[in-house]
Amino acid sequence: MTIRDLADILGAKVLVGADRMDQPVISACCSDLMSDVLAFVTEKTVLLTGLTNMHVIRTAEILDLKCIIFARGKMPGEDVLQGAEELHLVVMMAPHTMFTCAGMLYEGGLRGAAMDWKLSSHGADA
Amino acid sequence: MSAPALQKTYQVQHRDFGTAGEASADIKRMLRQLGVQSDILRRVSVAAYEAELNLVIHSLGGQLSLEVDTHHIQLSTSDTGPGIADLEAAMRAGFSTADDEARGMGFGAGMGLPNMKRNADAFDIQSTLGQGTQIAMTFNLS
Ligand SMILES: Nc1ncnc2c1ncn2[C@@H]1O[C@H](COP(=O)(O)OP(=O)(O)OP(=O)(O)O)[C@@H](O)[C@H]1O
Ligand SMILES: [Mg+2]
């Protein structure tokens, strides 16, 4: 799968990086809490989120993510789009809730990023 | 690898969400230029980012320092602020006292401290209530 396939499945509007859509996609994750993304994701996955501030861009920079999909038709600010351009990200906006976006992508064959964290009966252990 | 000695300290301001994360991004760029291998680079960057953001959100301000020598990368923070009442609870995955402002911005998963500990090869945290918190993390090179 490529980033372009994701855009097609979601009917998403590409906001940044229209010329970078042919990159391969391995997996996806979705969260509005960036520390969860920073903790549970180690591969270069696609990030699906409802959060539209710079924190998302900085998280993408720290993890070398290539593609961000904003759910619920949320339009990020100019600063976010500019930050994304500087990092050569692909950014798109999908006109569905996060749950529906995730379901559509899953149905299209995309799978979740491996969760790299020890789990015990007490929950996630450090 | 044999990295040249490097030392840099960043001042981190309380509640300055506009620039929060810039120190960590700078650290990542510098270490990448030094040729630090990608797995270590990712672990240091993630830990630096979580440490920096905790200073912004939970402390009244402080500093984040990076030190590199031939065998190690050290990250340390020192802040003035409320300190942490129950360190054991704070280290638990999911524990957070982040307020609504911070949560609305995507913080408050309660994953920062446990993730720092997990990513570092050595992790130490000291905190004094009403005064502040210090964290020292070491990452082994090679
Ligand atoms: N520098 C600090 N000064 C005072 N309290 C702190 C500091 N760092 C962490 N804490 C306390 O420890 C708790 C846990 O920190 P941790 O970084 O794990 O989670 P968080 O910052 O609340 O959320 P997240 O990091 O997932 O966005 C915080 O909610 C806060 O109560
Ligand atoms: Mg934190």
Which descriptors apply to this entry?
heterodimer, A: Udp-n-acetylmuramoylalanyl-d-glutamate--2,6- Diaminopimelate Ligase, Chain: A, domain 1, five-stranded mixed beta sheet, globular, B: 142 residues, alpha+beta, Heat Shock Protein 90, five-stranded antiparallel beta sheet, binds adenosine-5'-triphosphate, binds magnesium ion
The major β-sheet of chain A equals: 5 strands, mixed
Number of helices of chain A: 5
The portion of residues forming beta strands of chain A comes to 15-25%
CATH homologous superfamily classification of chain A: HprK N-terminal domain-like
- Biggest beta sheet summary of chain B: 5 strands, antiparallel
Estimated structural class of chain A: alpha/beta
Mean pLDDT of chain B: 95
- Provide the residue-averaged pLDDT of chain A: 92
Please give the oligomerization state of what you see: heterodimer
What is the level 1 CATH name of chain B?
Alpha Beta
**What overall form of chain B do the CA principal axes indicate?**
globular
